[in-house]
């Protein structure tokens, strides 16, 4: 392999990720390995941007010739206002996680939900059409997941949330002529679960350092269904561990992170993302952090 550090030229693709904080981000490791594996001269850098300097930073990427960047906490919603154009994914999710800069124009996308659905289908090796799907949580991640799931012709989608108003609002917003998204509280969950094929946790319950927590007691998890968790730290949450012991097929959140990046990579480069290389780089970066 060539030494990319000595190979920077005007052809170099400049990419990055804006956030505050940003030091913990695994995206640079994942994307730099991907560029290297594809033989594309480029650099993906962490960009520490404070909220009050977001507009200046975004203008700076244009001036510096960036081809695009990712957006992470806390800038995903604010970024909407700074785009010249928005993809439907960003409008529906109410947040931008990927920006493509072309001919001096900024276009905002949201690849979180479509990334999750692509990883779910890959890991299950199955389509989602005709499935009854129940989602725990109604935050930002749930919005992207519902948006992407509805493109797969599921039989039903039900959103359960602690703050029921938020579940209702999400369901109303995403319902359309052919599918009414349902909503409810945790009190109604057992009835819903009796007819669920796929149960997805989009809440932050069980995320490190609170990895001893779970969104649902083990005894309430239906036996033998598909259970998924968006959380990828830890790789296997307590929720997924307990679902496994109920005979469920489980899908964790690592694939979502890989595929939201893969979509962004494909928008920026026009080439297929080297997904397995990206997954290995992400796992290595996570292991490195634990050392
Ligand atoms: P968010 O907008 O803050 O939403 C959090 C959700 O969790 C809300 O529905 C909230 O319910 C619920 N919740 C939090 N604590 C709860 C508790 N103690 N009891 C019941 N419900 C609780 O967060 P987000 O951006 O959607 O992220 C959610 C999770 O997705 C995080 O763990 C994040 O790491 C994960 N995620 C993973 C990826 C990936 O690439 N794998 C990408 C994005 C997000 P209320 O509305 O009632 O507060």
Features:
globular; Rossmann fold; EC 1.1.1.25; six-stranded mixed β-sheet; 291 residues; alpha/beta; six-stranded parallel β-sheet; 37% helix; shikimate 3-dehydrogenase (NAD+) activity; single chain; shikimate 3-dehydrogenase (NADP+) activity; binds NADP nicotinamide-adenine-dinucleotide phosphate; quinate 3-dehydrogenase (NAD+) activity; amino-acid biosynthesis; 19% strand
Describe the structure.
The protein is of the alpha/beta class and 291 residues long. It has 2 domains: 2-110 and 256-290, Rossmann fold; 113-252, NAD(P)-binding Rossmann-like Domain (Rossmann fold), CATH 3.40.50.720. Helix content is 37%, strand content 19%. It contains 10 helices and 12 strands. The strands form 2 sheets. A 6-stranded mixed sheet has the order 2-1-3-5-6-4. Strands 9-8-7-10-11-12 form a 6-stranded parallel sheet, sandwiched between helices. Strand 1, helix 1 (27-38) and strand 2 form a beta-alpha-beta unit. Helix 1 runs antiparallel to helix 10 (275-290) and helix 4 (112-124) packs across helix 5 (140-149). The radius of gyration is 19 Å and the shape is globular. The model has no long low-confidence stretch (mean pLDDT 95). Bound molecules: NADP nicotinamide-adenine-dinucleotide phosphate (NAP). NADP nicotinamide-adenine-dinucleotide phosphate binds at residues 112, 137-142, 161-163, 166, 202-205, 207, 230-232, 253, 256-257, 260.
